[in-house]
Design brief:
Elements (H helix, E strand, L loop, with lengths): L19 E9 L8 H11 L2 H6 E9 L5 H11 L5 E5 L5 H14 L4 E5 L7 H7 L5 E3 L4 H12 L11 E5 L6 E4 L21 H6 L2 E4 L2 E2 L19 E2 L2 H14 L5 E9 L4 H16 L4 E6 L5 H12 L6 E2 L7 H6 L7 H14 L3 E7 L6 H13 L4 E5 L1 E2 L8 H6 L3 E6 L8 E7 L5 H21 L1 H11 L3 H15 L3 H15 L6 H8 L14 H11 L2 H17 L13 H19 L4 E7 H9 L14 E7 L13 H10 L10 E4 L19 H5 L4
Parallel strand pairs: 1-2, 1-3, 3-4, 4-5, 8-11, 11-12, 13-14, 14-15
Antiparallel strand pairs: 5-6, 6-7, 9-10, 16-18, 17-18, 19-20, 20-21
Helix pairs in contact: 1-6, 8-9, 9-10, 15-17, 15-18, 16-22, 17-18, 17-21, 18-20, 20-24, 21-22, 22-24
InterPro entries: BchE-like, Cobalamin-bd, Elp3/MiaA/NifB-like_rSAM, Methyltransferase_Class_B, rSAM, rSAM_horseshoe, rSAM_sf
Protein name: Radical SAM protein
Cofactor: [4Fe-4S] cluster
């Protein structure tokens, strides 16, 4: 029997009397993300089956369910139901609790409805899931599109043949005889051309309205990292969607995209395949065709190579490039061996950093704090390797994800892993998971010290004292990480500003007990409500509050930085202690960088003057701390001024622009002076081309796969 003629892409299907309702639910953490690829895949695959298409009417529900938005999301779904056949949830660690609670309410109101769950967090977790949520009727493991079609056919016939469907767990029997039954594992989909495009079921208006569109060009990951379920749980061959389909989908998505839409490529290792260069070229061409400049987010291949250099250059020239990820997670051989990870070689890492810097392409390096085998000292050594190569370290605490080797009981027992259910970011108390707080080589006090170091590095090396630390390290031979480690004591206890110290102390307190998050303190500094899940894009709220406190007043910032320099010099042996005045030019540059942060608060292009030896400026430029195209005199001093680029202030919002810029700094996506407008006396401005951060990437996709 052949399938009926397909409607035009995105055209709504006409409902018919007698069709049973099938509702697909994705509780999102991203404001305005009305498009869900998972829901699109499930509906498109189901409607490709003649019987299912004829007998089922589908509705998708991508709902924001954070904080005070959870109850409205529940009401919206429940009011849409009318004796439904199926309500299916896609579940990740960030929406698990909300999804299962909403599923309970669905089952309570419509007992005959079959509640179906699937997704990375619950696949292959049938015992735990059915104990936690016995109202879930069926759990689908792994790739769900084809299993879901088989499941709907069975449920249309009152569950007949459930036992013959591979890759599911369902309840069998009644009363005391009720027990879960798991069928044999399902094979992976080898031919992805058999899976219809998720965009095909979305009308043009819905695609045009979404703030985020996630798209796959391939599936699978050849690596087996023990901490990541992207590859660690599958270790699968990379399978590819047809290029013709990719071209058509990207053309439609870009044509319809609003100016605020982010296009996120969900490939596990973009750049791993030779054709990825062509996909990048294709995307640039399509954007030029429609005159679009999209926010583009991509997860790059783990072992960065020349192909990625070529691909990144194409995206940069097309105005689409976000910083390139150089994923290392750790530089410790012991850690990497336990994680079953073959890492990028250190000499190759340094070479690639230099090549990216030469091309003017920013990078950031993911590092995970708390991996088994890692000590505080080995972690600092890895951060120093990143900084010495000119990279921007982005440090995450280790989250224990379901379906990874780290979660195996034997591994956890051998490594003495201790976890606590905590927010992945203390700014967001709803986004919880099992965070590793201790193991055989790391005490919980070590773990907290590492988090304090993380905050110190963010405040000083990434934001407020970058140039001074670089010069001081060169003069004394000290490592940058050791200077930041010493500045932990200044930030938490030595700084004269009591509010700054209080915010730092609350950062530590909130990691030990999330209930101790001091909302009045943070709200008083930022002038907005924090920690309630309503604020899209806010991360690392203590870091933001400290910067906001210090940069809004130049005199307060100057006192704080002067105190930090005095603190460092006081702890330097007298014979190795440099003359304080030799640090003044670098400190003036750091104060000038503060004016860029201040502009993101005020919305005005504030200017700050500086004078520095040309040799100092040259070394900072070479290290990636100043614009790479900054032309300098051959010797002597150079005078000039720094200001925020005009483009950075386009669409300035008094409450959100500063927050978004701070997140970009934390993520290593911008560097204040490198991306500022720097003008030397008698020269043209440089560094003014940085794009305005209209939106920042939501953390969720990254946190879902911290192994990348």
């Amino acid at each position: 029997m052949s399938a009926p003629a397909a409607p035009a892409p995105g055209a709504p299907r006409a409902s018919a009397p007698g069709r049973r309702g099938v509702h697909l639910v994705d509780l999102t953490s991203i404001a305005g993300a009305t498009y869900s690829p998972t829901l699109g895949y499930l509906q498109a695959a189901a409607e490709a089956d003649p019987e299912v298409a004829a007998r089922c009417a589908f509705r998708r529900h991508a709902l924001l369910a954070r904080g005070r938005w959870f109850e409205p999301a529940c009401e919206e779904l429940l009011s849409a139901l009318d004796d439904p056949l199926v309500v299916a949830f896609t579940i990740y660690f960030w929406n698990r609790a909300q999804s299962l609670e909403l599923a309970r309410r669905v089952k309570e109101r419509w007992p005959r409805c079959r509640v179906v769950a699937g997704g990375n967090d619950v696949s292959y977790q049938q015992d735990a899931l059915f104990a936690e949520a016995p109202w879930v009727d069926v759990l689908v493991h792994g790739e769900g599109e084809l299993r879901f079609v088989d499941l709907l056919r069975s449920l249309l016939h009152d569950g007949e043949g459930l036992a013959s469907i591979d890759g599911i767990t369902y309840w069998s029997g009644r009363g005391g005889d009720r027990r879960p039954v798991t069928t044999r594992p399902a094979a992976r989909i080898t031919d992805l051309s058999t899976v219809p495009s998720p965009l095909s079921v979305y009308p043009d208006a819905e695609l045009a309205a979404t703030t985020l569109l996630v798209y796959e060009t391939n599936r699978g990951c050849p690596y087996s990292c023990a901490f990541c379920y992207w590859g660690g749980a599958t270790n699968s061959k990379v399978r590819q969607f047809p290029m013709e389909r990719i071209a058509a989908d990207l053309d439609r998505a870009v044509r319809l995209a609003s100016p605020t839409m982010m296009l996120a490529l969900a490939d596990a290792n973009f750049g791993i395949l030779p054709r990825d260069v062509e996909i990048a070229r294709m995307l640039v061409t399509i954007c030029e065709r429609y005159g679009k400049k999209l926010d583009f987010f991509v997860t790059w291949a783990k072992n960065c190579n020349k192909r990625i250099l070529e691909t990144a250059a194409l995206l940069r020239d097309g105005g689409l490039l976000a910083p390139v990820t150089l994923s290392t997670q750790s530089f410790s051989p012991t850690v990497l061996d336990l994680a079953q990870r073959s890492n990028i070689r250190l000499d190759n890492f340094r070479r690639l950093q230099a090549e990216f810097r030469k091309l003017g392409i920013p990078t950031y390096t993911d590092l995970i704090w708390g991996m088994p085998g890692e000590t505080y000292d080995s972690f600092l050594a890895g951060v120093e390797e990143t900084l010495a190569a000119g990279g921007a370290p982005v440090m995450f605490p280790l989250l224990l994800l379901n379906n990874t080797d780290y979660t195996k009981e034997s591994f956890r027992a051998d490594q003495k892993i201790v976890v606590r259910n905590l927010p992945f970011d203390v700014s967001d108390p709803e986004l919880t998971g099992d965070v590793v707080v201790a193991h055989a080589d790391m005490t919980e006090e070590d773990w907290l010290r590492g988090l304090e170091f993380r905050l110190s590095l963010h405040v000083f090396q990434k934001s407020l004292l970058r140039c001074t630390l670089r010069v001081l390290a060169a003069q004394t031979g000290a490592r940058l990480v050791d200077l930041c480690d010493r500045l932990r004591d200044y930030l938490f206890d030595g700084a004269a500003d009591g509010v700054t110290r209080a915010i730092a102390h609350n950062y530590r307190a909130a990691w030990t007990d999330p209930a101790r998050l001091d909302r009045p303190l943070l709200q008083g500094e930022l002038g907005l409500e924090v920690g309630n899940g309503d604020l899209y894009g806010r991360q690392e709220i203590h870091y933001e509050a400290i910067l906001h406190r210090l940069v809004q007043r130049p005199d307060r910032l100057a006192r704080f930085l002067d105190g930090a320099v005095d603190f460092l010099l006081g702890g330097t042996p007298e014979g190795a202690r440099p003359d304080r005045e030799s640090l003044r030019p670098a400190l003036d540059l750091d104060l000038a960088a503060g004016s860029v942060f201040r502009s993101m608060i005020t919305g005005r292009r504030e200017r700050a003057a500086f004078t520095a030896p040309a040799a100092t400026l040259a070394s900072l430029r070479e290290a990636g701390d100043l614009p790479p195209d900054l032309a300098l005199p051959r010797g002597g001093d150079a005078a000039g001024w720094v200001s925020a680029p005009a483009k950075l202030l386009e669409g300035h919002h008094p409450h959100h622009s500063f927050s978004r810029y701070v997140v970009l700094c934390w993520r290593g996506m911008v560097s204040t002076l490198r991306d500022a407008e720097v003008v030397l006396a008698g020269a043209a401005p440089v560094g003014a081309g940085v794009p305005a951060p209209s939106r920042t990437p939501d953390p969720t996709p990254v946190q879902a796969h911290p192994g990348k």
